[in-house]
From TrEMBL:
One of its GO terms (molecular function) is protein histidine kinase activity. This is histidine kinase. It comes from the Bacteria. Photoreceptor which exists in two forms that are reversibly interconvertible by light: the R form that absorbs maximally in the red region of the spectrum and the FR form that absorbs maximally in the far-red region. Its EC number is 2.7.13.3. GO terms for biological process: phosphorelay signal transduction system. It comes from Fischerella muscicola CCMEE 5323. InterPro entries: HATPase_C_sf (IPR036890), HATPase_dom (IPR003594), His_kinase_dom (IPR005467), Sig_transdc_His_kin-like_C (IPR004358). Keywords: Kinase, Phosphoprotein, Transferase, Two-component regulatory system. SMART domains: HATPase_c. It is an enzyme of class 2 (transferase). Residues 1-187 form the Histidine kinase domain. SUPFAM superfamilies: ATPase domain of HSP90 chaperone/DNA topoisomerase II/histidine kinase. It catalyses: ATP + protein L-histidine = ADP + protein N-phospho-L-histidine.
């Protein structure tokens, strides 16, 4: 067997294992919910870490990233690992579902007893119908049939933010970009 065929088989196998693990996680979330290990946390630390991990993909897609999450925000009481998953998913989706050379802006502001976080892009946007369903289990974008995945990422984000006592939502218009937002209670 030729080496490239073997490599493609191994990649396909890895994708299948990843999909199976995702299905298992979705089932677990439905049955047990999200398990949190919360502690006082500086949001900018999490955001900087995620951006560092996703920098190669952002560079490859020639994305201008504007990180406006301030280092002097009040602390949130959150699970750092789960919060990383939320930011990774929201940023990753913006990179995956948009053309190259978009602008991606991250910001967070303190409001009363919570912090409002936003991940905003100036990409292709979504219809109102997509916005209504985007956090449902197994919901995928209109062009997602050409991409691997099961439509679990935003569902998982909603479960994580809800477990923290926050809310999550999206605003978008076709051709005018998308803004995902979520709230987290202050520490």
């Amino acid at each position: 067997m030729n080496r490239s065929v073997l490599e493609r088989l191994l990649e396909g196998n890895s994708r299948q294992i990843s999909l199976i693990n995702s299905l298992q996680e979705a089932y677990s979330l439905e049955v047990r919910g999200v398990e949190l290990h919360c502690q006082p946390l500086q949001l900018s630390t999490v955001v900087n870490s995620v951006l560092c991990d996703l920098e190669p993909l952002a560079t490859q897609n020639r994305v201008l990233v504007k990180n406006q999450v301030n280092n002097n925000l009040p602390l949130v009481n959150a699970d750092a690992i789960q919060l990383r998953r939320v930011f990774s998913n929201l940023i990753g989706n913006a990179l995956k579902h948009n053309p190259h050379e978009i602008t991606l802006t991250l910001d967070a502001i303190a409001q009363e007893k919570k912090i409002l976080c936003r991940v905003q892009d100036n990409g292709v946007g979504m219809s109102k119908k997509q916005c209504v369903r985007v956090f449902e289990l197994y919901t995928r974008g209109e062009k997602a049939r050409f991409m691997p995945g099961l439509g679990l990422g935003l569902y998982v984000c909603k479960q994580i933010i809800t477990a923290h006592g926050g809310k999550i939502g999206v605003t978008s218009h076709i051709g005018a970009g998308t803004t995902f937002w979520f709230t987290l209670p202050l520490e």
